[in-house]
Amino acid sequence: MTHSVLASAVNHPDAINPYIGLFNQRIVQSFMRHGMDVDVVSPRPFAPPVGPHSEYSMLPTVEEWDGYSVHHPRFFYLLPKRLFYGRAGDSFAKRIPRYVERTFDVPDVIHACHIYLDGYGMVDYCEKHNVPLFVVSHGHFMNEYEELADGVREKVDETLGAAEKVLCVSDALAEKAAERVPRSKVEVVPIGATPSRYPVERKAALREELGVDPEATVALFVGEFCERKGIPELAEVLPDLDLPNTEFVFVGHGGDEEWTLRRALASSRFSARHVYTGITSMALRRWLAVADVLVLPSHAEGRPTVIYEAMAAETAVLSTTVGGVPEQVEDGETGVLIPPGDTDRLREALTALAGDRERLLEMGRKGRERLVEQGWTWDDHAERVYQLHREALE
Question: Of 87, 103, 107, 150, which sits with the fewest C-beta atoms within 10 Å of its C-beta?
């Protein structure tokens, strides 16, 4: 039996920024493959007439995105965020439900891809129409709850209280969510990756195409170039590393530590020719298939999507013991985990792994096996969510 879903996702790719919220795009696609009838509302702030972000004034209200329509109603989002983030939620909650009322039939379920703004903005709509609200916790609002501004923290609590279910991507997040709502409301619903989408069998050909030595150890970073992702630690160790026949590849989408990274590479033995500030999903899957190890020395995480993607691509993982990462990575089996912020351990781990490519290949193979065994794929994700939706409706 199918049912209708309205997905609320501020973070969703668009024509201006096709890299934002790719995991939310994957969620929508998995729902559709599973037979759910999905509409997508991905609100955007009103754009200034000139200056930064003015290009968003050219974004249409509705755009087609990989086989479905994405609606971009507008709301007011004032800067700086630390002062006005609560006001953004008020504007979202006032304007977006009006658009939804005018544009869509009442759905069976509202699926908010984040607690705030996505979930908070639809609380009143759900209460008015007696529609169950599902909210997803990826990490930020649980991991940094105490640091949220008072107005935002209250809105997060209101959203959690109104939700039918709080879907957490990791056990660690579920424990934190259970401190705020009854445990019966909390479900662990991992996201994942689809192994068949990663061209592992073409690894040698892709290396030749990308100009990478077939015998080199390729260390890949994927994420925002920022402190939270561990860029300062990487920048500290890179100039000191002596790793013959090792190439570093950095794929990011902005961040205030980009030039810290570039300066560190300029002072190191490694080339900066593979620093990318935006590539397509297809190109990223190719790099994941080419890489021997994903390097992600984060300070805070939920369960990073890119680790699932590395596992799908048979790529070993070097990461930190934060959030749900230890739930994903079997230390010593599918990767290596170190304490966050520990540059000595990062240096040691990079040196040891770069010199043992056979070990990396074995870790990568075991990682893919673990992904499949645990059901960490998009199809499994959709099935879990479908069953929770049906329980609420029945």
Answer: 150
